[in-house]
Design a protein that fits this description.
Structural class: alpha+beta
Radius of gyration: 22 Å
CATH superfamily of the largest domain: Nucleoside Triphosphate Pyrophosphohydrolase
Shape: elongated
Number of domains: 2
CATH architecture of the largest domain: Alpha-Beta Complex
CATH topology of the largest domain: Nucleoside Triphosphate Pyrophosphohydrolase
Distance between the termini: 73 Å
CATH class of the largest domain: Alpha Beta
Number of strands: 11
Length: 243
């Protein structure tokens, strides 16, 4: 009996440690960044109530649904619901045939909760507490496509963050691109690769398509915008007209 109680106590301690490993959303970098921005823009915060937080397999807070009670400098109440996601980035990977110079998009496809369909997207990920966006961009490209990049191969588009859903979320987006010249056989080898982490509920398949064809399959605003930002940055107006 004593031995069983000992095992039970050890199990309780283990479970308690696992529970403590889960990051509180209020201690997370993304929450405090959002709160500092609210205060910096003159809002008076009265209360913030956590409704639900999802953690990753390492115990870090990924997303959180919060109810906010705050007043604007004009004396109005802010809409109360905020979906906390933090800083996010996406990377356009352009594979260029070293002979013909034709451009191909390396996309990832996976089912998304927006409508349950298979979506085509650029590699993307969350910064969480990491301050080096270039490092995260290279990491996400590696994890989702199998291509290893140096930070020097990445170029950031726009020198300011953008907010895809200003009315309901703090999500802050950064855009990057890279160009890689390869033999066409090597380019094709990146198609239909199974990637992603099962522990994070990711089932990702890579997809290599001619630029225009790939662009027309993308249905998320960030991805569509990134294509245009990239073509504007490199001055490929002919390809832009073909989209």
């Amino acid at each position: 009996m004593g031995e069983k109680l000992g095992h039970l106590c050890l199990l309780c301690v283990f479970c308690d440690k696992n529970w403590k490993m889960k990051e509180s959303i209020f201690d997370s970098h993304k929450f405090n960044l959002w709160k500092r921005r609210l205060l910096g823009n003159g809002l008076e915060i009265h209360a913030i109530d956590e409704k639900y937080t999802r953690h990753n397999s390492h115990g870090e807070a990924l997303f959180s649904l919060l109810m906010l009670d705050a007043t604007t400098p004009e004396g109005d109440k802010m809409p109360p619901i905020c979906f906390i996601k933090g800083e996010v980035l996406c990377v356009l990977v352009c594979l260029i045939d070293e002979v013909t110079k034709e451009k191909y998009l390396l996309l990832v496809k996976q089912r998304r909760i927006c409508d349950g369909s298979m979506t085509y997207e650029h590699p993307a990920g969350m910064l969480d507490s990491e301050s080096d966006a270039y490092k995260v961009a290279a990491k996400e490209v590696w994890e989702e496509t199998g291509i290893q990049l140096e930070k020097s191969q990445l170029t950031q588009l726009l020198d300011f963050p953008t907010y895809p859903s200003t009315g309901t979320s703090d999500e802050t987006m950064y855009y990057f691109y890279c160009e890689i010249e390869l033999p066409i056989e090597k380019i094709k080898s990146y198609d239909e690769r199974f990637m992603g982490e099962a522990s994070e509920h990711e089932r990702i398949i890579t997809c290599v398509l001619p630029f225009v064809e790939g662009h027309r399959l993308i249905n998320n605003v960030n991805g569509i915008l990134l294509d245009f930002l990239y073509l504007k940055a490199i001055g490929d107006w002919d390809l832009m007209k073909a989209l």
